[in-house]
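$ fold --in a.seq
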Amino acid sequence: MRTRSVLREDHLLFKEQVDRFVATEILPHINDWEAEGITPRALWRKAGDSGLLNCDLPPPYGQGGDFGHAAVVIEALARANCLGIGFSIHSDMVAPYLWNFGTQVQKDRWLPRMATGELIGAIALTEPGAGSDLKAVRTRARRKSDSEGDGYVLNGQKTFITNGVNAGLMVVLASTEPDLGARGLSLFVVEEGMKGLGKGAALRKIGQHSQDTCELFFDELHLPADHLLGRENAAFEHVTQELAQERLAIALRAAASTEGMLDEAAEFVRNRKVFGRRVLDYQNTRFKFADALAKTTMLRVFLDDCLAQHMEGSLDSVTAAMAKLNATELQGQVLDELLQLHGGYGYMAEYGIGRAWADARALRIFGGSSEILREIIGKRF
């Protein structure tokens, strides 16, 4: 692999630490967690102890690194074919909302426990009838009347919530001024154990089985005023601000997954024989690998530039949308070709390519579907 100038020596040293953690604490157990449909909370504590959570926040809220360190964790998990481990949602999506929009009291209350893995975070934006279309959000947070005290009352439902079963803290999007549509949305912090919070059973998915995903229900859930995150009716602005990092994180996952499976598939075709010849000895196979390597190398150069821009604070929303679109679409194309080269073995659960192929499909949907991203990019013209 080409030298990546975006990663400094401290990033590379951290990569060795993260790779060891993945090899010793995750890979020996990932098949069991896939079967169980959830990652144990004990793993989160170990990840916190090893410095893998909230990498780019200062102590005690995180590990004191930058987004390059976060990228190392994202890529290590993806390259090892562990897309179901939900660290990135927790560290790179939930924690930044608290850090960027929370009060000092809110940061002190929740972020240190997220850094240690004691508190697992989830973000609850999507509803059964509202995904990318924020103005369609039906979850309501009404201000309490004078007789009820200060705060809000939350009612509604969220779905497809990653880390939802394990989550002790949920950042929830709700409408506070329905007449204003997307401009009348606010963010709230809901904690596990609050009266009126319900969690559905873990949802069955076609991939990422070790990632616990569920529905959340809010039934007259009373929230103190200090559980409002950011400004009231400013959630659209807050969410938009965080999308560039979210989409870059997804793009990095997709690219590293593709690179990891390309290496694994190359080993397979070197050893697998068909009609007395190695699969790699067929020109068709070599051409497939040549195309995949050329495209993934070009993608990596682009993503490293995006990563460098983001670490400098200059990554714009359109470039981030292009990163996610290119990475996830290419991931789907390459993994499908690699599965085909495995023949019938590619469809067997014991081979990693099958899990990678199924796990990858969601990446073209969440964080902004490919269709939404094309709309965003197309408006540049």
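$ fold --in b.seq
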Amino acid sequence: MTRTMMPEKLAQAAKELSRWLHDDALHLWRRAGFHGSAGGFCETIGLDGVPTAVPRRSRVQPRQVYCFAEAGARGWQGDWQAPVGEGLAFFDRVYRLETGFYGALADAQGSLLDASFDLYNQAFAILSFVYTAKVFPERRAEMAQRASAMLSALKAGYAHPVAGFEEANPSRLPLCSNPHMHLFEASLACEAEDGFDTAAWTALSDEIAQLCMRCFIGGENGGLREFFNHDWSPFDGARGRIMEPGHQFEWAWLLARWSERRGNAEALAKARRLFRIGEEHGICATRGVAVMTLLDDFSVADPLARLWPQTEWIKSAARLAVLSDGAERAHYLESALAACAALSLFLDTPVAGLWRDKMTADGSFVDEAAPASSFYHILCAIYELEDCLAALDGASSVAA
């Protein structure tokens, strides 16, 4: 394939993914995956299209609120209003605690099973607040206040003495980069939203970006780790060596966006390095998919391929293409096309609009229900790809 054909091929892949999203997935997950303010969002849908009754993780609720809010903001003509409004109401009623934080797990009947704190879940609560504000302007002030209250509570109860946040109070090890990644994503959304406390959210975005560049990313090889001691040094033993290709891509996407807003060259350089690690060491040459886990010497520790790293591969490649030119841009576009092909493998299911979650080392898929939590990854990747292609097309038009 010639480089001149690449944008056209990628645009076609994006069009096919968009059709799947808007014609199949959103309708299916609205019809079968959402049960109103009394039932909220289900955890999984079987590959036969029938929702399951397994317990529901807290994170699924605000992630699905985000999906339908973003789809509504993008012009999807289906019913997105009920999943956003009633979905958030269910999340509040079932999971919200007297502390203002959200518990971790409930059963399918809406009874809280696990009220424990998880920074990861609070990050997605904030993301749901800002996207609810986007599509329901009449609730903007309420959502801004709730996001600010959550940030204040996190700082009061879980602020780390150096930067970032603890996993628990009292402190519990290991500390983790992953929840900070999602808090970074939510903070970037809040800082750009009218009516939100721009200064506070900008400060948090900057704090997490600097923590990532100074501590999460190792100085020796430029890779991003998952687990840490209390001084933010890599955690002792094997866990401290873990590097996930999907998170190399996801942090690359976030740092690239932050660098674009701040004009920070260091962040962009580190984003490019993370992407190279994910692409050069985390893609299986046989299956063409991003694997689950590397160690800090870039050897493969777990060859399982899950759906979500493929979406982060798309997002980071597309965003870095926008921030590049010439041969470098062409490489990112080619990589984005390969990532779309990888994702499409997981979307080939008996009922259109569902997905496979796990591909084994031999290329076969684990026979299991489709997890709702993946929808956030897929939808975000498709819209990010569309945005980046539009930006590249606009830049080409201006140059012409």
